[in-house]
Amino acid sequence: MLKISDVTKKLQDTEVLLNCQLEVKDASILGLVGINGAGKSTLMRCIAGIYKVDSGSISFDNMSVYENNLVKKSIFLVDDNPFYERNATIRDIKKFYECFYEFDNSIYKKYLNMFKLNPAKRINNFSKGMKRQVFIVMALAIRPKLLLLDESFDGLDPLVMLNMKKALIDLVDSGSTVIISSHNLRGLEDICDSYALIENNQISASGDIEDDKEKICKFQLAFKDEVKMEMFDKLDLITYQKEKRMVTLVVRGKQEDVVKQLESLNPLVIDLLNISFEELFIYEMMRKGYYSNDDTE
Amino acid sequence: MMTLNKNYFNFLNKSNNNFNYIILVFSLMLMPLLSLVASGEVLKFNIALVFYLVITIILSIFTLLYNFRFLYSKRSLDTYYQLPLTKQELIVTTFIFSLYQTLVLPTLMFLMANLIYLIKGVDLETHLIAIILITIVLITFSQIINLGIILIANTLMDAIIMLAAYLGLLLFIIPGFFYYSELSIITGGYLNSVFNGFSPYWYLVKLVILISRHSFREIICFKEIIGFLVILICLLLAIYSIIKNGFLRNGEKAEQISSAIYGYPFISVIYAFILITIIIDSSSINETIMAVLLVFIPYVAAYQIYRRRIGMSMRALITFVIIVGLALFYQLVVIVYLRDEVFNQFPEKYPVEKITSAVVCSSFDESNIYVNNDVDEELYKEILNIESRVDRNSSQVCNLNVNFSDHKNYKFPISKEEFEEIAASYKLERRGENE
Q: Rounded to two decimals, what is the model's pTM?
């Protein structure tokens, strides 16, 4: 299990992470979300043992990560812009990682074929997405117990994305934990079990995606008479949109309780709409004041 | 405990095949080439030796910058720091690999180049072993110091600038200890002042004289010991820098401004001080003012490079003013006082005849004898003796131009008779006649 306790990290005298707390269960996939500059990449680097935390601790399987070769051998970070020597081929990169990790050649070949990557080709001729694929293949062949993907899913084409998701699910089935930071929340929703939201340098929300989605309900209502916002004062409204006698509401609370309250207003129609992970993120950020109601309309 | 990671070392060795190949080709090609050009076995041996030293010194800098370049890019540093390697293992292994690259191939080639003389039965074994051992020790020391310097920087450009600046500073110091006589032979004493006259070593000697009240000669006797101590201090400082900036290096430092106090701030202050001290020592007041302004330009340029922006902080300006003040104080008070201290140590009088035994003159003209070698205690006493007996206003006075141990040239008036006596005793030729 990955445990982040009270982690604070400054970069050039600016607090990037402040008292961050998070626990990630084994064999699960966590989506790390937050606006640009929230501190996702810094947290990833702290977890990977690249940055030393100023205070607090990060442990994996009850062992501190920083400067601990034993733990670092089971962690692998794929950056959004991974490093390679100028003329390096995929084979060269494999040789590099083989020196430090237990490398599974059969998995390496399997995914290389799946993504149609030629090991003899120089990486600097590849597109950004292909470069990421190369490093994700390396990560999969290393079979780390904790895989960190820092925006490395963004910009992949749909077919590659689908194959990547399958590969990650295979990895998790073998007992590994995956943390993915991404701005593509729709992409995350399919594979993530849980999420953590970073804002104002802190992990402000975390938990199971499905559980949290159930805490927010989205309804479309039609009324016979004129509708006023005050009618919904008893509800914990997140958004309110009105068009003539039609109203769309996003409400915090248990679905059954909210439905009961809405029924008491005698609407002609009550439609329960699905909420995506992306909407969950947006509503959460709206609640914190990052977006106004108008932004979502 | 110093730990070498064998896997990483092997990877470095395999992945640097091309670079190793270039070193091998250079070593292989140039040695026989030089041997062909040279005639005579001793000369061939010397050329191979010079080449061996030159190639190892160049490689000691180049391999270090090349192998540690990963420290100066965020992307590469992220990759290297996430590997299951401690920072200590990473630094130590990369350092040992750089040392291996610098020494192994050139040493093998040096041995091969001299193999022919060994087969011929020329007695070189002892020399070869001594040269190789000395080179290994010197290159190891120099690479430790170089590593300590480049680790101060956060970008490759800063690393190169700091290495050049610190090595330039060491150039002032090192020849003062070890290569002074050699420099005198090569440069005829003319460049000694550049290398030594303003060397921190000489400042140190003068300050020791001032504090301890010992004589100049007594202090000079400890030249080798002081030299060894300075090397030891440099090594200790380098090891401190390796631990602080290497083993404990922060992952987020790459590509940031190199703000360590012993980086740009120290370098710009020490260079400004040395340059201003030199200028004040050798210029008139008007020239000094102009020259100080000229030193201000590189000082400002260094600040722009350091901060990566146009402009100057008030703190940097005040620092410069303080440097000028300190340099003025140093020259006006310390050196003037010390000059008297150094050159008034010998009150006794010695017979004039002895002068010929101490002087080695290079040439003379109608009124000047130029003495290139260091003036030792005996000679100095004799010069004082001569000077005391000469009527400076007499038309029968010639000049004995002496290059003193602190690399300042002085003109001593001597009588025509003594002038002829010295010239005759050394069978000196007039300037121009022997050229």
A: 0.76
